[in-house]
């Protein structure tokens, strides 16, 4: 038997993206954004409200995205709780923010993967927007790479946000090879 949940739209886990940017004075800021994702192999898209990060990205035309992992769940959550309009989140987090070599945005050294992005489209303004960025470079710690040289999600343990239960979960278990496990039905 199936039960109707009405228009509940938050049933699927969302990526926990930490979006980092610089303000007009070069001060780094980071925020937790769950309404985000890869919209192609080379693009990131996210919806963002009226935040310091929104203003920074509109002004600078660049940002970085560090998908949060289990080892950084505390700072990832902090980046979603605190506001950069009232506190220097980079300083308070105790993390290391360094300048990207490819875009005008910071890299958070403690996060094992960072996508460096330049803005290609903004639908809105500094008070709220849908932003698309082209990934110009990906930085990755070797510790999360598999023997094949690709990111190993079991080693990395990235977070997803379960909005239905307001909790973070970990990605990592492999349950079948894509474009393979379904072949018996072909």
From TrEMBL:
Pfam families: Flavin_Reduct. SUPFAM superfamilies: FMN-binding split barrel. Keywords: Flavoprotein. Its cofactor is FMN. InterPro entries: Flavin_Rdtase-like_dom, Flavoredoxin, Split_barrel_FMN-bd. The keyword 4Fe-4S does not apply. It comes from the Bacteria. Residues 12-162 form the Flavin reductase like domain. Transmembrane segments: none annotated. GO terms for molecular function: FMN binding; oxidoreductase activity, acting on the CH-NH group of donors, NAD or NADP as acceptor. Belongs to the flavoredoxin family. This is Flavin reductase family protein.
């Amino acid at each position: 038997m199936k039960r109707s949940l009405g228009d509940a739209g938050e049933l699927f886990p969302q990526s926990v993206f930490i979006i980092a940017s610089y303000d007009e004075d070069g001060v780094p800021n980071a925020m937790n954004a769950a309404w985000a994702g890869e919209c192609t192999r080379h693009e990131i898209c996210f919806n963002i409200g009226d935040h310091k990060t929104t203003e920074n990205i509109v002004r600078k035309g660049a940002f970085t995205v560090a998908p949060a992992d289990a080892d950084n769940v505390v700072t990832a959550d902090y980046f979603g709780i605190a506001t950069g309009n009232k506190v220097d989140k980079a300083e308070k987090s105790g993390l290391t923010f360094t300048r990207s070599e490819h875009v005008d945005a910071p890299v958070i050294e403690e996060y094992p993967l960072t996508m460096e992005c330049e803005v290609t489209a903004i639908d809105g303004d500094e008070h709220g927007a849908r932003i698309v960025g082209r990934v110009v470079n990906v930085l990755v710690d070797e510790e999360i790479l598999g023997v094949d040289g690709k990111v190993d999600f079991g080693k990395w343990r990235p977070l997803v946000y379960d909005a239905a239960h307001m909790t973070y979960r970990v990605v990592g278990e492999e349950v079948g090879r894509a474009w393979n496990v379904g072949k018996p039905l072909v």
